[in-house]
Amino acid sequence: MCMCAAGYTGTTCGTGACAVDSDCEYGGTCDLTTLMCMCAAGYTGTTCGTGACAVDSDCEYGGTCDLTTLMCMCATGYTGTTCGTGACAVDSDCEYGGTCDLTTLMCMCATGYTGTTCGTGACAVDSDCEYGGTCDLTTLMCMCATGYTGTTCGTGACAVDSDCEYGGTCDLTTLMCMCAAGYSGTTCGTGACAVDSDCEYGGTCDLTTLMCMCATGYTGTTCGTGACAVDSDCEYGGTCDLTTLMCMCATGYTGTTCGTGACTVDSDCEYGGTCDLTTLMCMCATGYTGTTCGTGACAVDSDCEYGGTCDLTTLMCMCAAGYTGTTCGTGACAVDSDCEYGVTCDLTTLMCMCAAGYTGTTCGTGACAVDSDCEYGGTCDLTTLMCMCATGYTGTTCGTGACAVDSDCEYGGTCDLTTLMCMCATGYTGTTCGTGISDTTTKATIGPTSQAPTSGISDRTTEATIEPSSQAPLSVLSTLAIIGIYGGSVLLIVLIVLIVLVVVLICGLKKRPPPRKVNPSTDQAEVHDNPTYVDA
């Protein structure tokens, strides 16, 4: 079976939508090649039977549906198949400053303009404008002659006599007022004056008499004579304003000719200011300004920087520690180089962030200035102002020793509260006596015999004893003691070997009774314990 393309039917798909034009609705024509209907504009469907609308609501912006033609009948100003196209889509579609109403797609015309796109102005040629007005062909607006107004210049100065003031009459041909003697103006409202502005230099118009009432310092019919004509008419450095004919007084001076200053006596000046009787000006105390010195550095705390507070009695800023200046705006530093000894400037607070051991606004105070600032023999490094502590001491001023109480010293040592150094018990050394000292004892037993030659060595105990000098440093004594002990030990061993050899030789030559038993308590050669040395 044949699967027919859209619009075709029949066993072999040979039947199209039309065979003749009359098969196509609403003016459509039959394409005899394709057997398809070619629909007229606005119609669709296989046989062109679908129009733009079926009911009124299918047509936009108030259009109605013609049920005979199935076409939308658009309201004035709208076009398009469903009337969806209005006079405008954007403001630029409207002429002469009109704007597009995006709800209605209609142009909202500026005053004086009409038409779908506001293209019709008040005039097209001069004759469209009345009373001598001319047409501006760029704007299509009438340019009215003096005294006339209105879209086409049709409104004159008057329409009836009552429109003209002070007895003037209306010329109905020209719509202009014919003024009585002494008056002028469009409506004859100008006498010597009609409004205050007709009077010079701030004078006011008396509307009953139309005469000028002059401001202080001015005279004349229209108040045209002022307080001065040249600078010398003004006192205390004032100058004459040739436009106003008034004296322009120097700061702090007032009066018609600038003869009044800020003060005449000291009490006219605030916060301790004094009055200069030559210039009549207040000489303000430091930190105060203003004509009478009434303005201080602050009025509220927020006028003072970096936590300063405002003294409402003096109007002066009371600065937080480290800050100066009228409003406390100057800190200890602005750049790192303002801070001493390699510290940095905190640019938020303008304060120096001092390194450990330094104090002061700019970190210029160290731990010491002279050696005496350092305790227990420490010395002051004048480059860094830091204490160089003696061995065993620490702390900013070397005030911390090895101990503060006996319990800081180990193995029974005691704390010397004068030097803060540990005095170690016998046999111990080290800063806190934590190091023990090994005992070094040399013992030798020599059996006496009648045949034994005497060699100058006593059969009593041989001792090597090193007594520390109370004046020598303990560390030196310790070293000497060790050297003495080891050296003495070596010498003693050599002597013992020699003695043994002599004894053996004698025993071989002569018979001797068995050697007597040595009594340890009397005959043993014993070397006393070594003394204890304590490192400083």
TrEMBL record:
Pfam families in alphabetical order: EGF_TEN (PF25024)
Keyword vocabulary terms for this entry: Disulfide bond, EGF-like domain, Membrane, Transmembrane, Transmembrane helix
Ranges for region Disordered: 514-536
TM region positions: 480-507
Residue stretches making up the EGF-like domain: 14-49, 84-119, 120-154, 189-224, 225-259, 294-329, 364-399, 400-434
S-S pairs: C39-C48, C109-C118, C144-C153, C214-C223, C249-C258, C319-C328, C389-C398, C424-C433
Protein name: EGF-like domain-containing protein
Lineage, uppermost ranks: Eukaryota, Metazoa, Echinodermata, Eleutherozoa, Echinozoa
The keyword Transmembrane is assigned to this record: yes
Database matches in InterPro entries: EGF (IPR000742), Notch_signaling (IPR050906)
Keyword Magnesium found: no
